[in-house]
């Protein structure tokens, strides 16, 4: 069973770190961002290949959220360039909306729409953005609800679901737009321990089907299992990046070593 | 040791905690201060309530047509009875009162329908009636298109208060929403214009706006054009009300977490769709109590249009008190009646608001 309609069109050589532009879907060049005078992102360069799974980690306040929120322009940046699926993100609202249609995002606090039922949460964007007929949108929504294993909750409101269920709905909601890229910002860190795995399972399945994913997460088990590349950020910079095997067993930078010893030490 | 979990059966609370005696002990005589207050208010009730009841009902005059028939010591309700039609309809031609009635019944019907229709019809009917009702009621009230025309200077009485209030609220909701959104706009020009105009109308008493409306608005129109007096009052009320509405809605908008907008944006919804589908439905819902509050305030404020010479219910009472056949001093009856009618309406509306709140709350959240 596949979570996305797209079959993995590039399951070749997913383990090696890519640098080539050939089939990259996100290109970030010299990105700099400031909050007022505060320099949050410094000279970020990052290329993401189609189908690549990237895990971003780093201490609190290092700019992880800010970076991935730049990718769908929830945050604007002042310097550098960012291209998503061939569309340059600039001031042009047309471009921004075009990118947002192709990029799904899952938030730490789910951000489901509390006044709509689960089904309505899922069909809203397909109906209003993609202009898909209602019947079709509902059928697709039910399909995705089945895949995240909660079709029986379709007519409930978000407030009636557990955290884990809500997060799975949020993932399904993004998938209903049939995105090319999925962004996750600490999707499990607001969840009780027993619910974390049900969300991670869905994410693993998604990864196995070849979805391009960028996940900010501290779930190192998840990183080892599915990531093609782990990126470590500190103080607004990308400090180190490598495949998970090298990253965890043989970290190069002392910052990375300190960070890893801290989270593994727990 | 036995490690199985055995739940303890729920027991009834001790009998001293329930029953009328316990209730009285708990809520009336729980402390010396409380006891003192109970005795004090008990005295006030015994001292004042029976005379009021006696005046309003037992010794009141109900039958008759002139003030000379008010022989008993209580209230002279004959006065209200004789002026009742005026108090309700002003100088609206008697043979056409049915048109006012129909407009008012339509209003009640529109509101009631919202409570009894099944969910899926409710919204559609709501929108249709929101667009159609004002036009139909305007047609009924004013005439034309086959109905005899009744010029607005004949409109009056309590029906005028009701119509002004509902027309005011209907206009002020959309204007207030636009104003509130404009106030939060990222474009400095829009923001400044909205903030300053909201603050202007909010910072001036309604009476002043009414006066200005009747004196200054005509200056903006070319000489020959006479702007209807009622229209001027309506514009003034709408502007005033919209400014308050904008502030109420702003409160609602600010209560919606930023994550809602971000989620909508990340799904590709633009500004207007995000507002219309995600933010406003939630913001308006939590604003309902405050919207009803401003509406109740507006409803009572419609009596102020008497100041520019419109014959709403209060000025009708004053005219009646000046009438040579009714000079016997029926002020108390008149004002008690007006107060009572307003109270009934306002109280009903606040109950409806509570009802809507309860209805909207079910099933939407765990808490
Ligand atoms: N709207 C804002 N205005 C000013 N500063 C901000 C704003 N949002 C974030 N920051 C600052 O930017 C820095 C990076 O924030 P960001 O949320 O990207 O960190 P993070 O790596 O995601 O941290 P966490 O693990 O706590 O989520 C932090 O120091 C934060 O205080
Ligand atoms: Mg973060």
Concise overview:
Chain A is of the alpha/beta class and 266 residues long.
Architecture blueprint of SSEs:
The complex is a heterodimer of chains A (266) and B (367).
Chain A: E1 24-35, E2 38-49, E3 53-57, H1 64-71, E4 79-84, E5 87-88, H2 93-102, E6 103-106, H3 118-128, H4 134-147, H5 163-175, E7 181-185, H6 193-208, E8 212-216, H7 220-226, E9 229-234, E10 237-242, H8 244-249, H9 254-265
Parallel strand pairs in A: 3-8, 3-9, 6-7, 7-8
Antiparallel strand pairs in A: 1-2, 1-4, 4-5, 9-10
Chain B: H1 20-27, H2 32-58, H3 77-89, H4 97-116, H5 119-142, H6 157-183, H7 188-202, H8 206-216, H9 229-254, H10 258-266, H11 271-301, H12 313-322, H13 331-361
Helix pairs in contact in B: 3-6, 3-12, 4-5, 6-7, 6-9, 6-11, 6-12, 7-9, 8-9, 9-11, 10-11, 11-13, 12-13
Bound molecules: adenosine-5'-triphosphate and magnesium ion (MG).
The site of adenosine-5'-triphosphate (ATP) has 11 residues of chain A, from strand 2 and helix 1.
Explained architecture:
With 266 residues, chain A is α/β, with parallel strands linked by helices. Chain A has one domain (24-265): Rossmann fold (3-Layer(aba) Sandwich), CATH 3.40.50.300. Chain A is built from nine helices and ten strands. Chain A has helices at residues 64-71, 93-102, 118-128, 134-147, 163-175, 193-208, 220-226, 244-249, 254-265; strands at 24-35, 38-49, 53-57, 79-84, 87-88, 103-106, 181-185, 212-216, 229-234, 237-242. In chain A, a hairpin with a 2-residue loop joins strand 1 (24-35) and strand 2 (38-49). In chain A, helix 3 (118-128) runs parallel beside helix 5, helix 4 (134-147) packs across helix 5 (163-175) and helix 5 (163-175) packs parallel to helix 6 (193-208). Chain A is globular. Chain A starts with 23 loop residues before the first strand and ends with a helix. Chain B is mainly α. Chain B has a domain at 77-92 and 150-359: Orthogonal Bundle (MetI-like fold), CATH 1.10.3720.10. Chain B is 69% helix and 0% strand. Chain B has 13 helices and no strands. Chain B has helices at residues 20-27, 32-58, 77-89, 97-116, 119-142, 157-183, 188-202, 206-216, 229-254, 258-266, 271-301, 313-322, 331-361. Chain B is globular. Residues 363-367 of chain B have low confidence and may be disordered. The A-B interface holds A 72, 74, 93, 97, 100-101, 103-105, 107, 109, 111-115, 124-125, 128-129, 157, 159-160, 170, 173-174, 177 and B 257, 259-260, 262-270, 273, 277-278, 281-282, 285, 363-367. Residues 35, 38, 40, 58, 60-66 of chain A line the site of adenosine-5'-triphosphate.
């Amino acid at each position: 069973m596949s979570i996305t309609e797209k079959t993995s069109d590039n399951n070749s050589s997913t383990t090696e770190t890519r640098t080539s532009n050939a089939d990259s879907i996100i290109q970030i060049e010299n990105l700099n961002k400031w909050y007022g005078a505060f320099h949050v992102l410094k000279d970020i360069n990052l290329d993401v290949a189609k189908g690549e799974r990237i895990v971003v980690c780093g201490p609190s306040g290092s700019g992880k959220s800010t970076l991935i929120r730049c990718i769908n322009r929830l945050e604007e940046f002042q310097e550098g360039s960012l291209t998503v699926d061939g569309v340059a993100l600039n001031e042009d609202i047309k471009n921004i909306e075009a990118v947002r249609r192709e990029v799904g995002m899952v938030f730490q606090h789910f951000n489901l729409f509390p006044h709509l039922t689960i089904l309505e949460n899922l069909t809203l964007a397909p109906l209003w953005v993609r202009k898909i007929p209602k019947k079709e949108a509902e059928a697709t929504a039910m399909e995705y609800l089945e895949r995240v294993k909660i079709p029986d909750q379709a007519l409930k409101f978000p407030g009636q679901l557990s955290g884990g269920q809500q997060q799975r709905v949020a993932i399904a909601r993004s998938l209903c737009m049939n995105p090319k890229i999925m962004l996750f910002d600490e999707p499990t860190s607001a969840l009780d321990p027993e619910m974390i795995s049900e969300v991670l399972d869905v994410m693993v399945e998604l990864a196995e089907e070849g979805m391009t994913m960028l996940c900010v997460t501290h779930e190192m088990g998840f990183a080892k299992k599915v990531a093609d590349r782990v990126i470590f950020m500190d103080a607004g910079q990308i400090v180190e990046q490598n495949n998970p095997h090298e990253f965890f067993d043989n970290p190069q930078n002392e910052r990375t070593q300190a960070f890893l010893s801290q989270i593994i030490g727990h | 040791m036995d490690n199985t979990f055995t739940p303890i059966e729920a027991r009834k609370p001790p009998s001293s905690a329930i029953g009328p005696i316990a209730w009285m002990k708990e809520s009336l005589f729980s402390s010396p201060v409380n006891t003192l207050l109970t005795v004090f208010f008990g005295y006030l009730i015994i001292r004042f309530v029976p005379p009021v009841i006696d005046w309003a009902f037992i010794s009141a005059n109900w039958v008759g047509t002139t003030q000379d028939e008010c022989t008993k010591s209580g209230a002279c309700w004959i006065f209200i009875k004789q002026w009742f039609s005026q108090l309700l309809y002003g100088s609206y031609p008697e043979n056409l009162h049915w048109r006012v009635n129909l407009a008012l019944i339509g209003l009640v019907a529109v509101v009631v329908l919202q409570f009894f229709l099944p969910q899926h019809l409710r919204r559609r009917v709501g929108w249709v009636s929101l667009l159609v009702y004002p036009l139909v009621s305007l047609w009924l009230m004013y005439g034309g298109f086959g109905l005899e025309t009744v010029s607005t200077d004949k409109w009056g009485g309590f029906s005028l208060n009701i119509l002004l209030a509902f027309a005011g609220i209907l206009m002020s909701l959309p204007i207030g929403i636009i104003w509130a959104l404009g106030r939060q706009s990222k474009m400095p020009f829009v923001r400044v214009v909205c903030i300053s105009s909201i603050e202007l109308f909010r910072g001036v008493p309604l009476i002043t706006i009414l006066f200005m409306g009747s004196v200054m608005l005509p200056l903006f129109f070319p000489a020959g054009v006479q702007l209807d007096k009622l229209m001027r009052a309506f514009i003034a009320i709408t502007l005033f009300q919209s400014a308050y509405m904008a502030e109420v809605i702003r409160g609602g908008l600010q209560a919606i977490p930023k994550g809602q907008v971000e989620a909508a944006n990340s799904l590709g919804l633009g500004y207007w769709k995000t507002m219309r589908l995600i933010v406003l439905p939630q913001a308006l819902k939590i604003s309902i109590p405050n919207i009803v509050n401003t509406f109740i305030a507006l409803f009572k404020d419609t009596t102020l249009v008497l100041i520019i010479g419109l014959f709403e219910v209060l000025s009708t009472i004053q005219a009646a008190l000046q009438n040579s056949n009714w000079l016997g001093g029926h002020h108390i009856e008149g004002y008690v009646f007006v107060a009572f009618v307003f109270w009934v309406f306002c109280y009903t509306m606040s109950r409806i608001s509570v009802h809507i709140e309860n209805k909207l709350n079910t099933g939407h959240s765990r808490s």
